[in-house]
Design a protein that fits this description.
With 233 residues, the protein is α/β, with parallel strands linked by helices. Helix content is 34%, strand content 21%.
Length: 233
């Protein structure tokens, strides 16, 4: 594979890169299998539907209109060297580069870091539940390595936990928040789990899913650990 495989594109967003008008490029392929995946169509590796050079030409036409380009997935870092080169070229156009990652490729994150200005990185569960949620037994240790790789760069990040009550309890969330803060991160986000397929709630109820957002004690404790905590309902 000597070019990136693009499976989707959002041409304008104000919520995917903090404080900047951005677009999002979705790359295909993901090494893990989250129980709540909202992008299952992006998981299989194959030919992307978009021609990367046409997307690059389009990005040139967005200079002065957009400020940032975010690479998402799937897991964008799965694509390695061609991605680093593509990011380098996009950054040369003058865009800030954002990356949404599940942290599975710490070495690739390190290699990409010169071309990336900000990341949103998932911390999906405590170590006990990570394999159950992702289906992969080394996913937790890789994600922790990625956190430490990024912390060393000194660049900004948001660490995110989606609180699927099947895999994350309020106590788990508190443990995760303490660990994230201890690793030097200043911004944390708690994301509500929303079932993506209308025919099933996967054994959860609205009350279970809302519990994290109605717990003032939990929120206060977590808020006190960071400069910013976003409670994303
Ligand atoms: S990391 Fe993202 S794309 Fe990959 S399985 Fe999990 S939710 Fe889906």
């Amino acid at each position: 594979m000597n070019t990136i495989q693009i499976g989707g594109l959002v041409s304008f967003t104000t919520i995917d890169y903090p404080g900047k008008l951005a677009c999002v490029i979705f790359l295909v392929g993901c090494p893990i299998r989250c129980a709540y995946c909202s992008n299952p169509h992006l998981i299989p590796v194959g030919s992307g539907e978009y021609d990367p050079e046409k997307v690059f030409d389009w990005l040139k036409s967005r200079k002065g209109k957009l400020e940032a380009v975010v690479f998402s997935g799937g897991e964008a870092l799965m694509q390695g060297e061609p991605l680093f080169e593509y990011m380098r070229r996009v950054r040369e156009l003058g865009f800030s580069i954002g990356l949404h990652t599940n942290g599975f490729y710490p070495e690739n994150l390190s290699a990409a870091s010169p071309f990336v200005d900000w990341i949103g990185i998932d911390y999906k569960a405590t170590e006990t539940n990570y394999e159950k949620l992702t289906g992969v037994n080394i996913a937790y240790e890789r994600m922790i390595k990625s956190l430490d790789v990024w912390a060393k760069t000194g660049k900004p990040a948001e660490v995110r936990t989606t609180v699927d009550p099947r895999y994350v309890s309020p106590d788990d969330l508190l443990k995760i928040a303490h660990d994230v803060a201890a690793r030097g991160f200043k911004k944390f986000a708690v994301q509500k789990y929303v079932p993506h397929f209308e025919d099933t709630e996967h054994g959860t109820t609205p009350a279970m899913r809302n519990a994290f957002f109605n717990d003032e004690k939990l929120q206060g404790e977590i808020n006190s650990l960071f400069e910013t905590v976003t409670w994303r309902e």
